[in-house]
Structure formats: structure tokens, C-alpha cells
């Protein structure tokens, strides 16, 4: 029984180490994604170090999404202004062509921003799910470890 308990403890320790390594890799990937988000949005540092990992990801993604939505709205306003301006400036067909090109470029930017928002939302959801799974696995391992320790103490 002791040998099987020892083997089981060793297996659980190995499994725990594998999960910790996976969690560290996940955290490294998440940190890298957070850095990329920060670079894209040029947002301020998230100074509150006591926030949970999931909350930090949500906050960063949310601020990025808000910024992208503001940019999107600004671009849509610009497009509307360009459309209005194109209606009032029919005197010069050259200017009208230039405005249409700019309008198309802004439309492409809007589409890119919307795609980027969707990708970031999905990435955030994936990271949150992974984080929750890792936390659950850790809690389960702690329960198993406590049970094994209690069995070991009882046997002793």
C-alpha cells in the first residue's frame, strides 16, 4: 500500500509539474498577447498588480475594444463628412474621385478594425477559458494531495 501510495504521489507530483509548466506557458503567451494589445492600443500600464490574471486580460481587451470602437465611430463620422462634402463639391470631379478613394480606404480600415475586434474578443474568451480550466485543475490536484496526505498521516 505504501509503495502504491508513493507511486500515486509521484504521479500526481509529475502531473502537477506538467500542469504548472503548461500554466506558465499559457501565462507567457497571455503576457505576450497583453504586450501586443498594449502596443496596438498605446494604452497606459495596468498598475494594479493585485488584479487577477483573468481580470487583467478582460480589462486590456475591453479597453482595446473600446478604443477600436471609438476609432470605428470616428472613421464612420469621417466617411459621412466625406460623403456630405462630396455632395457639396461637385464643381471638381477630380476632388470627388480623391474623396471616393479616401472613402474606400476608410471603409477598408473600418472593416479591418471590426475584424480585429472580433479576433481580440475570441482570443480573450479563449484565454479566459484556459485560465479557468487551469485554476480548476490546480484546485483538484490540491484536493487530491490533501487526501493523500491525510491517508498517509492516518496510515502512519
UniProtKB/TrEMBL annotation:
UniProt keyword Cell division present: no
GO biological process: cytoplasmic microtubule organization; cytoskeleton-dependent intracellular transport
Protein name in UniProt: DAPLE protein
Coiled-coil residue windows: 58-151
Keywords: Coiled coil
MF GO annotations: dynein light intermediate chain binding; microtubule binding
Cellular component GO terms held in the UniProt record: centrosome; cytoplasm
Highest taxon of source: Eukaryota
Species of provenance: Panurus biarmicus (Bearded tit)
Amino acid at each position: 500500500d505504501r509503495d502504491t501510495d508513493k507511486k500515486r504521489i509521484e504521479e500526481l507530483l509529475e502531473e502537477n509539474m506538467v500542469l504548472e509548466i503548461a500554466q506558465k506557458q499559457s501565462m507567457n503567451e497571455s503576457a505576450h498577447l497583453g504586450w501586443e494589445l498594449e502596443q496596438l492600443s498605446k494604452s497606459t500600464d495596468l498598475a494594479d498588480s493585485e488584479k487577477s490574471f483573468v481580470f487583467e486580460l478582460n480589462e486590456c481587451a475591453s479597453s482595446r475594444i473600446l478604443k477600436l470602437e471609438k476609432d470605428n465611430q470616428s472613421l464612420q463620422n469621417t466617411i459621412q463628412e466625406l460623403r456630405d462634402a462630396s455632395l457639396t463639391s461637385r464643381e471638381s470631379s477630380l476632388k470627388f474621385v480623391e474623396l471616393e478613394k479616401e472613402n474606400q480606404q476608410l471603409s477598408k480600415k473600418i472593416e479591418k478594425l471590426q475584424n480585429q475586434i472580433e479576433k481580440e474578443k475570441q482570443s480573450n474568451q479563449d484565454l479566459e477559458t484556459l485560465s479557468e480550466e487551469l485554476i480548476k485543475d490546480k484546485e483538484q490536484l490540491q484536493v487530491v494531495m490533501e487526501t493523500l496526505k491525510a491517508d498517509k498521516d492516518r496510515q502512519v
